[in-house]
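step 3/5: co-fold with protoporphyrin IX containing FE
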Amino acid sequence: MYEFFLIVHSWLRWITLLLAVVVIFKSYAGWLGGGSYSKGDNGMSAGFVGTLHLQLLIGLVLYVFLSPLTQAAFQDFGGAMKDSMLRYWAVEHIFVMIVGITIAQIGRTKAKKAAEDVKKFKTQAIFFTIAIVLMLSRIPFHEAGRLFRF
Ligand code: HEM
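step 4/5: write tokens
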């Protein structure tokens, strides 16, 4: 069960990042170039934020029930704070991800409510950029074994 959730969480990261690149690129292009906000743009934005919610859900299952790393940290939380690896998984990853996902969701909601298309693109560009920069800072790219998990 742990392996399954970890593999899905790991691979979904690439889908999220791919969608992020496309949505953010299109948002800047629409904002600075003044395009019209199409159904496709809305769909891509919904897809991006949707994968984040899925990551949140899978991540929480890993965090609370399955991950041996968080289970170890919960045994002695004070001690885990002194271990950089346990602290990363018990605190840093979840905290920064929750902040990033919240910012992305706020951006999506504000973009949907905006009256003009340029405003929709601008809102998405700003909020999604901040969200993705935060999330990229807490994805463990430095660990080769976690890049493409089978
Ligand atoms: C609040 C939301 C999230 C929570 C609670 C969460 C929690 C976790 C936990 C517990 C692990 C497993 C550590 C282990 O046992 O090895 C993990 C791994 C990971 N998470 Fe998250 N996560 C969240 C959001 C995200 C998001 C949004 C992304 C990327 C878009 C992401 C990318 C990853 C990656 C790449 C790994 C390593 C997977 C691997 O080892 O192959 N997480 N996360």
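step 5/5: annotate
Residues 2-146 form one domain.
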